[in-house]
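Posting for a labmate who doesn't have an account.
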Amino acid sequence: MNIQIVEQQEKLQVVIQCAQINDEVKRLKNHIELFDNKLKAGKSGEVCLVNTSEVLYFEAVDNRTFLYTSEEVLEIRQRLYELEEILSEKDFIRISKSQIVNINHMKSLRPELNRTILVTMCNGERLSIS
């Protein structure tokens, strides 16, 4: 595999040359696309742009959707099913009816006796996979 970065008139182009497109190449492409993907979220009437790579997880509570980063909790307009479409083939997975998690921020997984899996995130928060 050969990766080339080309700069042309204020544009950056990444070229991936490989013998065949396999899962590793697709994953690399998704990481590159995810790098500059931003979502609009709000807190106290203020709108912020958040890189999807900074998101630990999304959670739906009482018909509202929240975006969690390591430092803050913001409300986002999209519903979980809309986020699933936006983030499809990225590093996000739905772990329950109310949560979507960024697998890059998972620290550990532990099976529980009640047939669930306890996920510890990089910030120490624990979530349950149903």
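Reply:
Got it, the structure tokens are right above this. The helical segments are 23-35, 80-86.
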